[in-house]
């Protein structure tokens, strides 16, 4: 199992154009770690994964597996296996042949091949389906075959490219659990791409948050949630988007309502944006804010409130089922849960 | 309300009847010459013309016989010519499928410098008629060397051979384009999965991509088969002896030697049957592929 390191890595598709997907990227994925690459569409997370796989070239800098440069190695020589978004199963082959194809290419004897295929099928409960073609399988079963095709090679690392995005919500949850269990069982270095931050938070040992500007933050789910490095991560990580309030005159009533300080007083401390998670805000009796919308989520509701004369809404997670449009409440926040960012959007230490 | 519904219903029925009538008419226009040819092949020469306008012209009666077919085989070398055309078509189809699909695969799925330029050239070749290329091609093939297996020696010039009717036509711009269109729709992830599994470009082409291309293979096979089987101008220019003569040139020669229309029709029927059989066997795949590729005749 390698650790995977990007050292000052660049990626651009056209060598003649100064248009980089990544520039000077440093990323260290530890051995056996489940790393999730997360970010909005077009941020380059799949490109990064494909660079690890060898399906995309590294335009500059180095990609190291266990300290050995692999920039020039073809995919198969890197010893990694990849599960694709649309499974990429070979439609004309049975499940058995799909799982065993790489072993056949590698020239393994038939008996050895059979043993490994059956073993992989057993791990993924595919034994009954070995003679079926992919068209005869459900989405979840196809996903398992794709994983089977990856694990049968005993790879040094697993790469998953949005593997659950084609499944319905229930199946996605089930497959997520299976992938987590598989990782725990085999303990292989895993890099997993998703745009779903819930998937990222539940699966990852560490998460790399990417944006169009490159790597924004790399840390554990708790680190990212509790101490987002900048406004982008703060807004991206979390089931419910963090309230990000610009420190300016227009938002002064809201800032005063939450912090007890005017925008000028807050700005004097070098703060450009104030952040508060909906989970950390409480609704109490008062007249300060009016309920604009209540999104019922089951046990909780996401309540959107507006302050008179203040642009935008503040969202609060509440268990109060009596809330309805037009009611008035006051907002309360434990200052310890306040996030402060400078004018450039970088986190300020308390 | 009900009256308008009834009138809409009758309009629908009328449209359906008109549609069916047009289809039947089109079928008659296309099928009648073929049926006439097959029927005439079984009739004595005089009966063909006396029954020309009769509705019973296509219905077998007591005068129908295999005499014309017997005469065709006795008087001409149709057996040898059919064999020549069969060989030319078989090698042309098999070789053409591999060569054209391989070019298309390289254009659609492999990264290499000049790919766009080559694709443009292929498309440009599509609009060049064969008649423009025929003379330069004749000059080229008349100077090309060939290793003659029978004599074990190197000869110059390909004229009067079977291979002169095959090799220049293996690469077919239309077939390359047809395969290219199909391969472009094959997900790149399939190729990438193959690369991750350790397969090289050839293995991916043969074992992963070609097996999922049956409809387009059948379409290309039909196009190549028709081209090879129907060759006329090129064999007239390059083949002057009977040893390598294809059946189309044989028909022209036979036509020049006889005035028996029944025999000519029998000859024509014999050379039409393989094409019809080939098409009927694979028409399902052919239609699927042509519809999928958005190609109109």
Summary, kept brief:
The complex is a heterodimer of chains A (350) and B (297). Chain A has 350 residues and is an alpha+beta fold.
How does this structure look, described?
Chain A is α+β, with helices and mostly antiparallel strands and 350 residues long. In chain A, 29% of the residues lie in helices and 29% in strands. Chain A is built from eleven helices and 17 strands. In chain A, the strands form four sheets. Chain A has a six-stranded mixed sheet with strand order 6-7-8-3-9-10, sandwiched between helices. A four-stranded antiparallel sheet of chain A has the order 2-1-4-5, with no helix packed on it. Chain A has a four-stranded antiparallel sheet with strand order 15-14-13-16, covered by helices on one side. Chain A is globular. The model of chain A has no long low-confidence stretch (mean pLDDT 91). Chain B starts with a helix and ends with a helix. The longest helix of chain B is centred in the N-terminal third of the chain and has 39 residues. In chain B, strands 1-2 form a two-stranded antiparallel ribbon. In chain B, a hairpin with a 4-residue loop joins β1 and β2. Chain B is flat. In chain B, α3 crosses α13, α4 packs across α7 and α8 packs across α9. With 297 residues, chain B is mainly α. The interface between A and B is medium-sized, with 23 and 14 residues.
């Amino acid at each position: 199992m390698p650790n995977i390191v990007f050292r000052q890595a660049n990626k651009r598709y056209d060598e003649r154009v100064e248009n980089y997907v990544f520039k000077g990227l440093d990323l260290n994925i530890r051995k056996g770690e489940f790393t999730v690459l997360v970010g909005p569409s077009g941020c380059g997370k799949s490109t990064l994964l494909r660079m690890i796989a060898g399906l995309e070239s590294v335009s500059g800098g180095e990609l190291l597996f266990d300290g050995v440069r692999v920039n020039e190695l073809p995919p198969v020589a890197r010893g990694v296996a990849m599960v694709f978004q649309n499974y990429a199963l070979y439609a004309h082959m049975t499940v058995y042949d799909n799982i065993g194809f790489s072993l056949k290419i590698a020239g393994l004897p038939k008996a050895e091949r059979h043993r490994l295929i059956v073993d992989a099928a057993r791990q993924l409960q595919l034994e009954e389906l070995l003679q079926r073609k992919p068209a005869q399988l459900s989405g979840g079963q196809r996903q398992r075959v794709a994983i089977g095709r990856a694990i049968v090679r005993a790879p040094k690392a697993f790469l998953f490219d949005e593997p659950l995005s084609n499944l319905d919500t229930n199946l996605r949850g089930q497959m997520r659990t299976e992938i987590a269990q598989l990782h725990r069982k085999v303990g292989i270095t895993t890099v997993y791409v998703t745009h779903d931050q819930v998937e990222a938070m539940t699966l990852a040992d560490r998460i790399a948050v990417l944006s169009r500007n490159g790597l924004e933050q790399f840390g554990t789910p708790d680190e990212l949630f509790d101490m987002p490095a900048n406004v982008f991560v703060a807004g991206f990580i979390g089931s419910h988007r963090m309230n990000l309030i610009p420190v300016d005159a227009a938002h002064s009533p809201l800032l005063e309502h939450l912090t007890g300080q005017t925008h000028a007083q807050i700005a004097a401390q070098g703060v450009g944006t104030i952040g508060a998670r909906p989970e950390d805000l409480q609704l109490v009796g008062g007249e300060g804010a009016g309920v604009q919308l209540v999104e019922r989520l089951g046990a909780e509701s996401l309540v959107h409130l507006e302050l008179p004369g203040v642009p935008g809404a503040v969202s609060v997670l509440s268990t109060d089922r009596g809330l309805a449009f037009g009611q008035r409440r006051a907002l309360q926040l434990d200052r310890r849960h306040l996030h402060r960012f400078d004018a450039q959007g970088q986190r300020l230490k308390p | 309300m009900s009256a308008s519904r009834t009138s809409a219903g009758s309009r629908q029925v009328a449209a359906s009847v008109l549609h069916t009538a047009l289809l039947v008419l089109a079928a008659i226009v296309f099928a009648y010459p073929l049926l006439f040819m097959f029927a005439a092949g079984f009739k004595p020469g005089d009966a063909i013309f006396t029954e020309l306008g009769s509705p019973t012209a296509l219905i077998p009666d007591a005068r129908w016989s295999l005499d014309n077919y017997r005469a065709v085989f006795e008087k001409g070398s149709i057996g040898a010519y059919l064999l020549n055309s069969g060989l030319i078509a078989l090698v042309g189809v098999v070789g053409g499928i591999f060569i054209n699909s391989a070019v298309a695969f390289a254009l659609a799925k492999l990264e290499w410098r000049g790919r766009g330029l080559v694709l443009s050239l292929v498309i440009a070749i599509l609009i060049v008629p064969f008649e423009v290329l025929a003379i330069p091609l004749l000059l080229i093939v008349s100077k090309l060397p060939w290793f003659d297996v029978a004599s074990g020696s190197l000869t110059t010039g390909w004229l009067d051979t079977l291979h002169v009717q095959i090799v220049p036509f293996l690469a077919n711009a239309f077939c390359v384009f047809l395969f290219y269109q199909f391969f472009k729709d094959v997900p790149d992830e399939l190729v990438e999965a193959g690369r991750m599994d350790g397969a090289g470009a050839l293995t991916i082409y043969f074992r992963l991509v070609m097996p999922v291309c049956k409809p387009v293979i059948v379409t290309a096979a039909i196009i190549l088969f028709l081209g090879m089987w129907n060759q006329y101008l090129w064999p007239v220019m390059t083949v002057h002896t009977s040893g390598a003569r294809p059946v189309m040139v044989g028909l022209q020669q036979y036509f020049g030697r006889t005035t028996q229309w029944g025999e000519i029709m029998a000859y024509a029927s014999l050379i039409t049957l393989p094409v019809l059989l080939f098409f009927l066997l694979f028409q399902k795949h052919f239609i699927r592929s042509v519809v999928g590729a958005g190609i109109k005749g």
